[in-house]
Amino acid sequence: MDLLKTYRLYKKINQYPNLLGLIRSTFMEVLEQRGIATRAKLQERVLEELKKDGLDDTEANRQEYLEALIDYYFATHLTPSEIESYINLARKRDKAQTLSRLVNQDQASSLQIFNALEEFCEIPKGEVYISREEAEGIRVALITRFISSQLPFISLSKNHITIRDLHELLRHTLWSRKRPGKLGGKAAGMILAHKILLPLLEKHDPELEEYVRVPETWYLNSGVFSEFLDRNNLYLFHTFKYKDREAIEREYSRIEERFRFANFAPEVVEDFRKILGEIGEHPIIIRSSSMLEDSFGLAFSGKYLSIFLTNQGDLETRLNNFIMGLKKVFASTFGPDPILYRRDHGLLDYDERMAMMVQKVVGRRFGDYFFPLVGGVMFSKNVHTWNPKIKKEEGLVRLVFGLGTRAVDRVGSDYPRMIPLSHPLLRPEVTGDQIRKYSQRQVDVLNLKKGVLETVDFKTLVDQIDHPDLFYAVSVRQDDHLAPPFFKTERLKGKDLCLTFDNFLTKSPFVPLAKKILSKIESAYGRPVDIEFAWDEDKFYLLQCRSLSLRNEKERVDLPGEVSPEKVLFTTHAALSNSIVTNIEYIVYVDPKAYDLLPTYEQKMRIASIVNLLNKNLQEKRYALMGPGRWGSNDINLGVRVTYSNINKTRVLIEIAFAKNGSTPEVSYGTHFFQDLVEADIAIVPLYPDDPESVFNEAFLLKSPNLLRTMVPEEKELEAVVKVIHIPSVCNGDFLHVYLSTQHQRGIGLFGSPQEG
Question: What angle do CA 728, 729, 732 make, to 5 degrees?
């Protein structure tokens, strides 16, 4: 039998005649590691056998006997499956050497590297792997070449993204035939989070294995963008970022036009056609994934376009819509918001490149509509602690019914459900009326018939469709009382429904799963994270992950003691950070009441334009911006529709919201707009004048001399709405100082002498 085992092993290894030396070297390592035979012992045995057989002690004879003995010992001490694994290990070592050489050669093409990677991955994975150092070196080189060159990402991802993971990614990647490129930051974050939760080579968590998914995704690396610019002679726009703000804002429409008329090479169009053929008639989203996006500490939240496509109809129609969508995302690289954001953060000279992800949208079809049950964003650190019971370290979720777009954008009179994961049913509102007032009323869906992203009234939607999981999302109103339905079979049509998600939080696995996901990823990152997700048909779909931008806060802020009432501009009982902002010289005040009285959309948009001009005029000064409700809301009646670039030079943004019945729900935390303010270190102050315990010195703001006509003379007729106050001129040399304390959940703005430091 020993002879037969040795013969079988010899037949196996002779399938790889060029690798016999490497295979036997691997065998020898294993024999020594397992204590079966040492090199010295085998050499002694070789000499004994040579002597016994009457052969000369030559190098050739020694080698021949040594190889035979290695084969014999290996065949007789290891099982057939172990033998197979170690033969494959030798094969992997050989292919790894080739792969390592290629991936570290600048002149090697992506196709050459991919072919070498494919040859490596064709060898069965087995239970035995190449050495950690060897694998790590190849992982780092592949990640750097194909995903991201950012060192914080590389040092983290090399521990989670395997060589085989990279092979699978590249099988779903379209790269340029002419230009090198990477998958970009947004793709990098999603890939890394997925592999932290569901590692290929480590033991899986059964709960994560059951529930966590990533949508089917195809990647277009940044080389496609570079080749597109080359082909259409669009490189002149690389100097566009050095123009002044006014020119960037004014000329961006010309860039969009140039991109619309540009075209892709025929072979690239054919690649797009193949991708769409694989996807079929399923809604997709084209998501930006620039090189800088979702980097550590700088999220670029919402700076670049992501475009939903319903992707219905014949292939050529879908292809044309797809190409138009790609070009819009490409053009957004040169948009005013991302360029000014880069300028603010010292990244203007970086040669930004755009990659993309093409993902199947998560959800199901209901009549003409397509959407998931819920979508949202969750944070591993909860800085919105309106109740002392809430544990910051257990995280927060912003949850909406339908597409998650309403969770990350500031929208209309709608409110996502804010869920502290330590106490998921706790909410700022108390009565049924308050809960209804601060609930979601509109739903973002894809209208497959019209081919657009559409906002639909929730009550209208549920009257038109039969959603099998509505039980999880709603509560039923009875008088002033709201209660979630008891049974999934309960008929809900025709009832007075309110989106509360109480059953989703208590009768689905979502809450413990969300805690586990956030904890696991934060632990791997070594810093807080935020994650965009969708949930449908009892599955959690990971859409995006990045390190959470947190304000560089003080550990503790002690509020000033006794302050003369005439020195107080405002007090608030909602503080979102531990912050002190001193020596504020100017206030730009948009009077909420006067703003409400503006009769037309155009006039309200003029207010945003004035704020933008004042932001430029005061960029070298320390100024506070105060105004109605939701700054940055897409509902112009609820707040001034500004973007980050319109307000990026303010030091404090004060949102004046008239909260009724003592309810003070925070409406912006977790949105892209909020993240921009955090990264720019702009303090955010929610101010509720109707709160009897708050102070708001409205008279000071209304009666102080207004400098608007001096600073923006062309807009003087709107000085009843917008006021610019030079504080030292009005307050005998005093400046405004703002103190915010999360421990006390209080803040104060007061006038006082200039402070040092």
Answer: 65
- β-pairing, 529-536 with 173-174? unpaired
Q: How many residues does the chain have?
A: 757
Q: For 241-252, write each residue's pLDDT tens digit.
A: 888 777 888 888
Q: What's the pLDDT at 666?
A: 44
- pLDDT greater than 50 at residue 665: no
Q: Give the helix/strand (H/E) hosting 226.
A: helix 222-231
Backbone Cα Rg of the chain: 32
Sign of CA dihedral 418, 423, 424, 428: negative
Q: Give the C-alpha distances (Å, rounded to integers) separating 351 from 290, 327, 333, 637, 644.
A: 11, 19, 11, 39, 22
Query: Minimal CA–CA distance to 682: which of 711, 649, 656?
Result: 649
- Secondary structure (H, E, C), 700-747: HHHHCCCCHHHHCHHHHHHCCCEEEEEHHHHCCCCEEEEEEECCCCEE
Q: Determine phi and psi for 414, rounding to 5 degrees.
A: -100, 155
Q: Which residues contact 742 (CB under 8 A, 6 or more apart)?
A: 383, 385, 557, 575, 576, 577, 578
SS3 287: strand
Residue written as tokens 């090198």?
180
CB 421 within 8 Å of CB 394:
yes
Give Cα separations from 580 to 554, 749, 752 (angstroms): 8, 10, 14
484 vs 472: CA distance, rounded Å: 8
Q: What percent of the chain has pLDDT over 70?
A: 93
CATH 3.40.50.1970 applies to domain 172-360: no
pLDDT at 575: 63
> What is the mean predicted confidence (pLDDT) over 128-149?
90
pLDDT of residue 383: 72
- CATH 3.30.1490.20 intervals, the chain: 172-360
Q: Residue 295 carries which DSSP code?
A: B
The three-class DSSP label of residue 292 is coil
Angle between helices 163-171 and 132-146 (to 10 degrees): 30
User: Residues 6 or more apart from 456 whose CB is under 8 A from it?
Assistant: 369, 442, 443, 445
Query: How many Cβ atoms sit within 10 Å of the Cβ of residue 111?
Result: 10
Which residue's structure tokens are 């690649």?
271
Burial of 636 (0-12, 13-18, 19+ CB in 10 A): middle
- CA-to-CA distance for 20 and 24, rounded, in angstroms? 6
The predicted pLDDT at position 308 comes to 96
The predicted model gives 500-511 an average pLDDT of 96
- Cα–Cα distance for residue pair 115/8, rounded to 1 Å: 31
351-361 tens-digit pLDDT: 788 899 999 99
DSSP per position, 478-529: ETTEEE--S-TT---TTS-EEE--HHHHHHSSHHHHHHHHHHHHHHHHTS-E
Q: Residue 572: what pLDDT? A: 84
Strand partners, 474: 499
Phi, psi (degrees; rounded to nearest 5) at 706: -105, 120
pTM to 2 decimal places: 0.82
pLDDT band of residue 311 (cuts 50, 70, 90) is very high
Task: Note the pLDDT of residue 235.
Answer: 77
- Measured CA to CA, the distance from residue 464 to residue 459 in angstroms comes to 9
Give CA–CA dist 703/696, Å, rounded. 14
Instruction: Give first-to-last CA distance, the chain, whole Å.
Output: 86
Q: Which tokens go with 701?
A: 């703001």
User: Are 228 and 177 spatial neighbours (Cβ–Cβ below 8 Å)?
Assistant: no
Residues 753 and 737: their CA atoms lie apart, in Å, by: 9
Contact 414, 428 (CB under 8 A): no
User: Across-strand partners of 571?
Assistant: 695, 748
How would you classify the pairing of strands 623-628 and 586-590?
parallel
